[in-house]
Design goal:
The chain is mainly alpha-helical. 68% of the residues lie in helices and 0% in strands.
Length: 184
């Protein structure tokens, strides 16, 4: 990522923390949490590596192509999973966006996210609109709601089972994706 180094390092920290929490979610007692956690950990750590400032890490062209292949494979895996679980479509868009950004960086010699001129403007704009919408939607879902007193006692959940923390992680990755697409 190019631009203010502080912003890039904050994005690296946010994505690394999100990836680490997603690894913790892989140990959840809730199947839905475990099913999505691995892909989200890959996305979080991948975004962290991609957001490292260009002055610190400027990968060679072949590294961007490998990165694109990894996220392309993740997109294919997610496409397969989306056949039976349509909620995986968001993960498909995310993996595709990461593969797209990686290939765009490989096509521009000496490029690193944020140098501009990489990518297809229409596709970048469409992905940007999708992720802005996702951020707004998931942020609204985190807003506190009134709890009914008839709901009864809630079960004690471990950190890996907290759906609101998982949603906050998805929100932070969405914000990170918006920031990365803006710099493409």
């Amino acid at each position: 990522m190019h631009g203010p180094a502080q912003a890039a390092w904050l994005l690296v920290a946010l994505c690394t923390g999100t990836g680490a929490y997603c690894l913790l979610r892989m140990r959840s007692r809730i199947e839905e949490q475990r099913r999505t956690a691995g892909g989200e950990a890959l996305m979080g750590f991948g975004m962290a590596v991609m957001a490292v400032p260009a002055a610190v890490l400027a990968p060679p062209r072949w590294a961007w192509l490998v990165y694109g292949a990894v996220f392309g494979a993740a997109a294919l895996h997610t496409l397969w999973a989306a056949r039976s679980h349509p909620h995986h479509l968001h993960h498909l868009v995310g993996a595709f966006a990461m593969a797209y950004m990686s290939v765009a960086m490989a096509m521009v010699p000496g490029a690193h996210a944020g140098h501009g001129g990489a990518g297809i403007p229409l596709l970048t704009g469409a992905l940007l609109l999708y992720f802005v919408g996702y951020v707004l939607w998931s942020g609204a879902r985190l807003a506190p709601r009134a709890v009914s007193s008839a709901a009864g006692g809630a079960a004690v959940l471990g950190w890996a089972d907290r759906s609101e923390v998982a949603l906050a992680c998805r929100l932070s990755m969405g914000i990170g994706m918006v920031a990365m697409l803006l710099t493409l």
